[in-house]
From TrEMBL, chain A:
Protein name as it appears in the record: ABC-2 type transport system ATP-binding protein
Principal localisation: membrane
Record flagged with keyword Transport: yes
Keyword annotations: ATP-binding, Cell membrane, Membrane, Nucleotide-binding, Translocase, Transport
Transmembrane segments: none
Domain ABC transporter: 3-233
Annotated localization: Cell membrane
Keyword Phosphoprotein: no
Pfam families assigned to the protein according to its UniProt record, in alphabetical order: ABC_tran (PF00005)
UniProtKB/TrEMBL annotation, chain B:
Keywords: Membrane, Transmembrane, Transmembrane helix
Name of this protein: ABC-2 type transport system permease protein
An MF annotation (GO) of this entry: ABC-type transporter activity
A cellular component annotation (GO) from this entry: membrane
Record membrane topology: Multi-pass membrane protein
Domain of life of the source: Bacteria
InterPro entries registered for this protein in UniProt: ABC-2_transporter (IPR052902), ABC2_TM (IPR013525)
Domain ABC-2 type transporter transmembrane stretches: 23-363
Organism encoding this protein: Lutispora thermophila DSM 19022
Keyword Transmembrane helix: yes
Compartments, record wording: Membrane
Length: 315, 371
């Protein structure tokens, strides 16, 4: 295991920010920490890497106790903070160079590494530009470059795509995939379930300081007990068709509103083909069709009764 | 080594911050020109002819004879022209008639008090007479103390123990531009307090604190690096001001520019440590910044930054000792115009002791709040 956390507790006064969480990460794994803002993800991460002191719990990184070997362990960790942590009055090159020097890089090795991470994040052409002139997306990418310059064994990415344009987001997602393919071990926190679903091999869902569920994507979706929903818009409604669908195997319910039929099927029955065939047989034309399968958003909704997005807007 | 990198990049960022640079360089350079031109008259002094003084020589009193002998010394005669009269009233008459500027009368009571009567209206002449009489008193007191301690060396001179300060043998004296170049340079160094106040907080502002903390760095490396970076910035600012004023305004910085730079470093260390300590004690960098900005102006004023020290009232002169600006100014004046070496040493020691004390306080406070 690269990282093992046992019974971690962190309080701020009377508030229990991290409530007795335990998790472990294997080498080469991308571990997703999913949860709404204020769930305790950042506090948990900061505590794990020694930026904040834990009130209780054990943290072992690279097989060593973080409390006793923090200085040595930190050399092999790269952090991409949630907030953009770079200096506006330095160029992109100087920013990466400075943080590289803090990890004892120097000379030609430092130069090569700086160029390498700037290229990796697509900023090599802008290396001499002052960061104060960068867009939000470019700053986010530089934020990542600064964390990678010393080739850390464990990379922590805390909400790396917050508040940026789709193009930069795609670039960051692709970069993480590339790192995954190269065998990097990454902790990826986000409140965007699509990102976590897309990138992470193992996921823990946090809420109110606790890990409320964990597992692979598929394992987490198994938590969901709801059925599969298919919403079909037709050119006209034939009530005989509705009755036929209702009597089909594995269909739980079928309702009509205007020209839209909503069919609820039992989970995992893959009933879509049968429904489509039934419509074609009845002589109706399908205008549009939406098949909704459970995702991590649904998982979170099922577990907490709230959506991730709602939490984001009310946080 | 990492502290050096932090220092270098801190200075690089400060120098590139054009807003800061303008206020730290353009402002003093313009102020030197304005104050130097506007207050040039305050630095014009009249030709020093010996001041005519009447000494009432009415008896054979030992103190009176000593004073008479003192006033007849060659050095004293260059600045005071003494005429002896035997009657107090006759002497006062000469004063009233404008034949002399002051009258010195030794009372023949047990206390041996020396009374000086001066015509009003000429501060400079008045101060010359007062200084000479004070010097005599000091030497007489020293002689008395020596005899009380059992000293009996007849060759011992008590007039040599009078220290001469800031009187250049070549007759050089600071012009208004020279004076204000020094005071504005010192003010710029003291504005380093505001850099100091933000030194640690700026890492929180830029969110880079998390990177410094997550790197394998010790607190002392961050602290030393940040403080050294600000001192380096201030030294760069000082170099620009000195070079600009030397070659554009023809300001006299003396022959020992490295020593002037060392004085700037001393003041930069003091200002930075004062800024860091204030910020950490108050716990809010914005409040500390507001306080320090005001304080720098007050200290500059007290230190003779706007109104020349020699034009201040006696109360203000006493208050000046509270201002590091005054100490810095005296060090520079003494260094440039061949003044008192002991004063340079003493004031330098005061500044370094204060700086190091503040740095120790800051380091302890900082470790507790940032660790």
């Amino acid at each position: 295991m690269i990282l093992e956390v046992k019974n971690l507790i962190k309080r701020y006064g009377d508030t229990l920010a991290v409530d007795n969480i335990s998790f472990s990460i294997k080498e080469g794994e991308i571990f997703g920490l999913l949860g709404p803002n204020g769930a305790g993800k950042t506090t948990a991460i900061d505590t794990v890497i020694g930026i904040r002191d834990a009130d209780k719990g054990e943290i072992n990184i690279f097989g060593k106790d973080m409390k006793k070997h923090a200085s040595e362990i930190k050399k092999y960790i790269g952090i991409v903070p949630q907030d953009i942590a770079i200096y506006p009055d330095l160029t992109a090159y100087e920013n990466v160079e400075f943080f590289g020097r803090l990890y004892d890089l120097k000379g030609s090795l430092l130069k090569a590494r700086v160029e390498e991470v700037l290229e990796f994040t697509g900023l090599l052409d802008q290396k001499k530009q002052f960061v104060r002139n960068f867009s939000g997306g470019m700053k986010r990418r530089l934020n990542i470059a600064c964390a990678l310059v010393h080739r850390p064994k464990l990379i922590i990415m805390d909400e790396p795509t917050v508040g940026i344009d789709p193009q930069s987001r795609n670039h960051i997602i692709e970069s993480v995939k590339k790192m995954r393919n190269e065998g990097s071990t990454i902790i990826y926190t986000s409140h965007y379930m699509e990102e976590v679903e897309q990138l992470c091999s193992y996921i823990a869902i946090m809420d109110h300081g606790k890990i409320i569920a964990r597992g692979s994507k598929e394992e987490l979706k198994d938590f969901v007990t709801v059925e599969e929903k298919t919403v079909i818009t037709l050119d006209g409604i034939n009530y005989t068709l509705v009755d036929r669908i209702k009597t089909m195997d594995n269909v739980v319910d079928c309702s009509v509103e205007g020209n839209v039929i909503t069919v609820i099927s039992k989970k995992g029955t893959n009933n879509l083909n049968n429904i489509i065939q039934c419509i074609i047989d009845s002589g109706n034309q399908i205008v549009s069709l939406i098949s909704e399968k459970p995702d991590l958003e649904t998982v979170f909704l099922t577990l907490t009764g709230r959506t991730l997005r709602d939490e984001v807007t009310t946080a | 080594m990492k502290a050096l990198y932090i220092a270098y990049y801190t200075a690089l960022r400060k120098v590139r911050n054009y807003g800061n640079l303008t206020s730290m360089l353009a402002l003093p350079i313009v102020m030197i020109l304005i104050l130097g031109a506007a207050l040039d008259g305050s630095f014009q002094i009249e030709n020093i002819n010996p001041v005519k003084v009447i000494l009432v020589n009415e008896n054979e009193d030992e103190l009176l004879q000593s004073l008479n002998e003192f006033l007849k010394q060659e050095d004293i005669k260059e600045i005071i022209n003494t005429e002896t009269v035997e009657d107090f009233d006759k002497g006062m008459e000469k004063i009233k008639n404008g034949e002399a500027f002051a009258l010195v009368h030794v009372k023949t009571d047990n206390e041996g008090r020396i009374h000086v009567y001066k015509r009003s209206g000429n501060i400079f002449r008045s101060s010359v007479v007062q200084s000479v009489i004070d010097s005599f008193n000091q030497s007489a007191n020293a002689e008395y103390a020596y005899s009380m301690l059992g000293g009996n060396d007849v060759n011992t001179s008590f007039y040599d123990n009078i220290s001469e300060e800031s009187i250049n043998p070549d007759g050089k004296r600071p012009k208004a531009l020279d004076y204000y170049a020094m005071t504005m340079l010192i003010m710029t160094m003291m504005y380093g307090t505001t850099y100091g106040a933000f030194s640690m907080a700026e890492e929180q502002f830029y969110r880079t604190e998390i990177r410094l903390k997550s790197a394998s760095l010790h607190f002392h490396e961050i602290f030393i690096g940040k403080v050294a970076g600000i001192i380096l910035t201030l030294v760069i600012d000082a170099s620009v001001i000195i070079l600009f004023t030397k070659y554009v305004y023809d300001v006299n910085w003396g022959d020992n520019i490295p020593f002037i730079m060392f004085t700037c470093i001393t003041l930069a260390v003091l200002a930075t440590s004062l800024g860091v300590a204030t910020s950490m004690i108050i716990g809010n960098e914005n409040k500390a910044h507001a306080l320090l900005s005001t304080m720098v102006q007050v200290l500059t004023f007290l230190g003779g930054g706007y109104v020349p020290y020699h034009s201040m009232s006696s109360v203000m002169k006493k208050l000046s000792f509270l201002s590091p600006n005054y100490l810095g100014l005296r060090i520079m004046l003494n260094a440039i115009y061949d003044g008192s070496q002991s004063q340079i040493r003493n004031y330098m020691a005061i500044l370094w002791i204060a700086s190091l004390s503040l740095l120790v306080i800051s380091a302890f406070r900082g470790r507790r709040s940032l660790a």
